[in-house]
Amino acid sequence: MTEEAPIITMENVTVRYAEQEQPALDGISLTIPAHSWTALIGHNGSGKSTLIKALDGLVTIDGGTMTVAGLTVNEENIWQIRRRLGVVFQNPENQFVGATVADDVAFGLENAQVPRPAMVDRVAAALEQVGMTAYAEREPAHLSGGQKQRVAIAGILALAPDIIALDEATSMLDPEGRASVLRTIRTLKAQENLTILSVTHDLEEAAAADHVIVIDNGHLVASGTPPEIFAQGAALIDMGLSVPFTEQLKTDLEAGGITLPAGYLNEEEMAAQLWKLYSTM
Amino acid sequence: MEIVLDHVSFTYQAGTPFAGDGLKDVSVTIPDGSYTAIIGQTGSGKSTLLQHLNALLKPTQGTVRIGDRVITPQTSNKNLKPLRAKVGLVFQFAENQLFEETVEKDVAFGPKNFGVPAAEAMERAHHALTLVGIGPEYYQHSPFDLSGGQMRRVAIAGVLAMTPELLILDEPTAGLDPKGRKELMTLFEQLHQEQGIGIVLVTHQMEDVANYAEHVLVMAGGQVIKQGSPAAIFADPDWLHAHHLGLPQAARFARLVQAQGLPLPAPLPLTEKALAHALLPLLHPGKGQSDE
Amino acid sequence: MNKLMIGRYLPGDSLVHKMDPRGKIVLVFYFIWLVFFADNVWSYLTVGLFTLLAVLLTRIKLIYFWRGIQPAIFLILFTVLIQVFFTRGGQVYWAWGPFALSSAGVVNAWFIFFRLVIIIAMSTLLTLTTSPLDISGALSSLMTPLKWVHVPVDIIALMLSIALRFVPTLMDETVRIMNAQRARGVDFGSGSLAQQIKAIVPILIPLFVSAMHHAEDLDDAMTARGYRTDAPRTAFRVIQWHQRDTLSVVAFAALTAVVFLVRMP
Question: Which segments cross the bilayer (chain C) (predicted)?
Fold first, then answer.
């Protein structure tokens, strides 16, 4: 991909929680290019979520500097930054503030003091974009997890942000919900030229990203394109992840005496390689 | 212990917002000591079915036989307790049920309720904690000081300490990272293989179905619409797709390879190992039947 | 639980449903006050017919109103009996010690009976036709003047709305936790009082912990979405006053006039 100017930078960022010995983030430095999709992976408790919260000023950092959309993350800028960076959190239940879908989408706009006539238009437009228009008057109790997450996305979208951060936003959803949320995000990224920063365990989602960053015990341990990261094979397991399916298959086939090209192959590439092997025999 | 549902229907009290998530004329047998997977979309009736297996719910129509106890709509709520010790039910996000001051007390809570003397209950708690990989250094900790994954294990230990003959698991790995997921699935497999505990697993992970289950129930709209071995269930990808269910990754990839033209022999390999095994003969020089 | 109709909302599309909730609340309270001025057959008949008209306008089945009255039936009968036996006046049919059955007692008892039924029917009408959300919105709106004495009306309103929004969530959670503990051998609703109280602990603590988690996450989510208590906000949900609301005020004014006209001089 073409390197764009960074939209997020972190320089030596450290976060320490009061009751814990080990820092949650320990001198993290990274940059995230604008308009890219970056997957942030690592096992539970590795510090991935803390990283998102630090960027959004929800935890205070004990050292280092960060910028989001050209603004230094500090007390003075934080409310502006929160309009540029929207976060979809893990639990669909716990970010639904409004009494109905439309009320919830409007919540951020009310906070931004958008006048009501403009608000009505923007709520309608955002709901349209996530395909929830028909549910505008529904109460959250009558929505599935995937629908609630799409409402959360609409709430962010209404504020026209530059970046959407997904903090394990699909981990509590069933496969259908997960697919619908990812589909929505993909479409929106293209339409609105967004930058996506996604904390995830889903290797398939990570495989589709432009960049993968691996966090372990508060350290950045790897960063690169999905093929670069996934070629690490068994080392991924030590980081609390799993080995991508094609890598596993490759290991087993190689153990059976088959030679396959070095480097990570996605499913299509792997299938093509197998066909090549078979047909040239 | 065998569980037999005979024409079981269940209707939730009218007025609940999620009416329809009941059961309609379900007749299934969960064989003694089997590993059964239940798959189906959210709201297909899986949770309702589970709660019939330990008589948390009683059928509105039909009968449920759990071992030698028969539950009918008329069965009184008394004396159902012994059943619940034999059929352990681990709810989704089971860590939400923890409440005691210490880890060991919480795990001993179940056995104590079933009349096990305090000392033995504690012994059982320690044994169960060992099984789930929670070491003695945590026994005196508050369960609320543990990590999410550890809390889940403690909650599971709390059910294992009741020494159930059948373990019912409602999406036990939801929200865990891949490592935690793998560890738990291995634990359940061990309990099944080594101690002969029957397992009923509700899951959205088709890989788990392919890797572990012996028997699969497919649910939709409160009914069991198909049952059989994983091979039988996954043999019809189009039917699964029509019911919003997927294939295990290995089977999906096998179909991709077949579409490329590789003559993978039937049946469709369901696991990565089976797939590698099926591919190797085709790729080895000399062994492959090059019919070009 | 399903029988209890007090506080239940039945969505609908009737004139009464569509009324401004502020107007509805104020008018219902006004009506309850007005009922106490009824003191003869004609005035009771007036408020009674008015209630019947209002009930019919909701297009909700009468059975739901009856269910609203049902739980209070013993209270009503008790009050009626006291009226019957302790009021003396007019012709005394029967007397024994402090008890007496008199014509005035019987008439009074009828009035009390009607008054209670009318009041309960009208309050049931309010809750049946107004969503909790509208009631909370209306209450906040009615509290607006309190801003002048520095009551944080907006914060209270948001709290109320969030509390209502989480009621179904916490109800679901309670059921789930109860089931999980029942699966671990807890018996609810059996044994001595002490045992029953003890059985509540394994529900209350997880519920409390879970509520705390909801609150922490919600705090983050609200902050991330730009909510600050020290800044003004605009409002998406507005309650609109329509002509029909003005008309209903007129109707109540007319009712007042009639009641006072037919009252005993």
Answer: 21-38, 73-96, 108-128, 148-167, 246-264
